[in-house]
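PROTEIN DESIGN WORKSHEET
SECTION A - STRUCTURE
LENGTH: 82
TOKENS:
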């Protein structure tokens, strides 16, 4: 009979982060700061900042920002990654 082996499970610490993404057609997200819709426009390549927010090492919510609004909020989740 085989003896079970012990493995150490590394605990991952999750932290809130921000990414910059193109606004996709059909997007219906509200900017957290100005409370206006982050809109898709076919002739403009608009971007948005999407933030995964973790509280007590657990995913809590997603926040959307216009890029200017995110800067006005002093980049609460750090500089957005591409």
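SECTION B - SEQUENCE
RESIDUE ASSIGNMENT:
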């Amino acid at each position: 009979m085989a003896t079970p082996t012990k493995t150490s499970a590394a605990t991952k610490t999750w932290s809130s982060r921000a990414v910059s993404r193109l606004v996709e057609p059909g997007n219906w997200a509200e900017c957290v700061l100005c409370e206006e819709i982050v809109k898709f426009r076919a002739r403009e390549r608009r971007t948005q900042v999407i933030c995964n927010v973790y509280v007590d090492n657990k995913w809590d919510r997603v926040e959307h920002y216009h890029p200017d609004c995110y800067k006005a909020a002093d980049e609460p989740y750090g500089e957005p990654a591409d």
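SECTION C - NOTES
The mean pLDDT is 87.
Strands lie at 17-22, 29-30, 37-38, 47-55, 58-65.
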